[in-house]
Every structure is written in structure tokens, then in C-alpha cells.
Amino acid sequence: MKRHVILLLVFIFFVVPKSISGTNEEYEVVSKLPKESIVLYAKKMNDGLYRDFKLDFKGETYFRPFWINVTNPTYAPKIFYQDINEDGKKELIITLTKGYGSGVRDEEVYVYSYTNGLIDVVVDNPLAIINKNVKTKLTPEKAEITLVDKGFIVDTKSIESTHLFEVIGFGSVIDYEVINNNLMVRVSVQITPAVFVGDIVITYEYRDKMYQAKAIEFITDINKNPFYGPVKH
């Protein structure tokens, strides 16, 4: 009897065709670069997030089960395939939006080089870069932002002092872009729940096997901020 059961199980496992379409149909395209044969898939969940990502990169498939992105198409994942470290080879850059709202945009970035497969390259956290390189002070009279040896002052006298934060806040908006073949990130600078006084803009460079800050700017003029208006990829 046991032998018959075993034979039946073997028959089912090897002979009965398996339907893989059910799994594949759960995935949907969330972003793509058709000319580069790069397509990003994910599963849409009831919590308003895409999860369980699958990346088709030039005929190779990679799974990223722990990635998340909001399902709002305005904040769909962005894919870039450009040479951002000047080595003559293109890198794959993918940005994901984990959350958004009024005055909020929370993005993360993944960068890959390619050598017999995609290789994850570390990108220094922008908040860690700011913590190391930016000094701030906030009073009812002014907000002070100092980058290395360059200081900026923003008048706060017109703002009700009870609305001011205790310290200047960073990170309600973290927005990554590739601009003119440079990986860049914009981090908001905030002094009240509703008042932003500018952005810290960081330009990355590849150094010591990771992407680190090459330049850090504090920009208050929207017309001088490369993240506003038509972005030149």
C-alpha cells in the first residue's frame, strides 16, 4: 500500500503539469526602460503598497522580496541606467517611494554595478551625511545652517515662536534623482510643521567602493535648485 502511495505522489509531482500563471499574474509592471530591456514588477497589496519585487535585467531575473513602494502611480519607482561613476560602464539605479503626503516624501535608492550579475553598491545615508557635515541652530530670531565653512541665516521673527521646532528638522522630504549623470538627493530643511526654509542638496561620487558625498549645498532659491522644473537626466 505504501508503495502505491509513493508511486502516486511521484506521478503527481513529475507528470501533472504545474500552473505557474497564477503566480505570474499576481505581478504587474511598475516601471520599465524598454530600450534597455529593464522591467520592474511587483505585487499590489491591499495596504496600498507594492511588495515582493521582481527585476528583469537584460534577460536575467532578480527577486527583491523586501522592497516596498506606494501604489500611487505619481510615485512609481524610477529606473535609471547611466554611467554615474565615470568608469565607462552604466550603473543601474532604482528609487522607491515608501511614503508620501503633505510635505512628506520618503524615498530610498539602490545602485548596482554589473560584473557577471548585478552587484549592490552602498550609498551613504543622506541624513548621516548631514549629521556629519551640517551644523544648525534655531531661535525665535533666526535659523542658522552651517556647511563646513559657509553659513546661512534665515529670519524667523515673523513666525510664531510656539510653532517653531526645538531644532531644525531634516528628512520630511528625501528625494533622489540622477541629474547630468550624477546621483543626487534633496533633503528638506524644516523649522515648523508647515514651514520649509530650503533644501540640502547632496551630489554623490564613487569613492572607497561606495557612493559618498562629493558636494553639499543649502539652497533656498527654487530657481537655483536642480530638482525643480525640468530635471535633466
Structure in words:
It contains three helices and 15 strands. Residues 4-24 have low confidence and may be disordered. Strands 5, 6, 7, 8, 12, 13, 14 and 15 form an eight-stranded mixed β-sheet that branches. The chain has a four-stranded antiparallel β-sheet with strand order 1-2-3-4, with no helix packed on it. It has a three-stranded antiparallel β-sheet with strand order 9-10-11. Helices cover 11% and strands 53% of the residues.
The total of beta strands comes to: 15
Element order, helices and strands? HHEEEEEEEEHEEEEEEE
Poorly predicted runs are: 4-24
Report mean pLDDT, rounded to a whole number.
89
Q: Which labels suit this protein?
A:
233 residues; 8-stranded mixed sheet; mainly beta; 4-stranded antiparallel sheet
Summarize the helices and strands and which ones pair or pack.
Elements: H1 2-14, H2 21-24, E1 27-33, E2 38-44, E3 49-57, E4 60-70, E5 78-82, E6 91-101, E7 104-114, E8 118-121, H3 126-133, E9 134-138, E10 142-147, E11 150-155, E12 169-179, E13 182-190, E14 196-207, E15 210-219
Parallel strand pairs: 7-12
Antiparallel strand pairs: 1-2, 2-3, 3-4, 5-6, 6-7, 7-8, 9-10, 10-11, 12-13, 13-14, 14-15
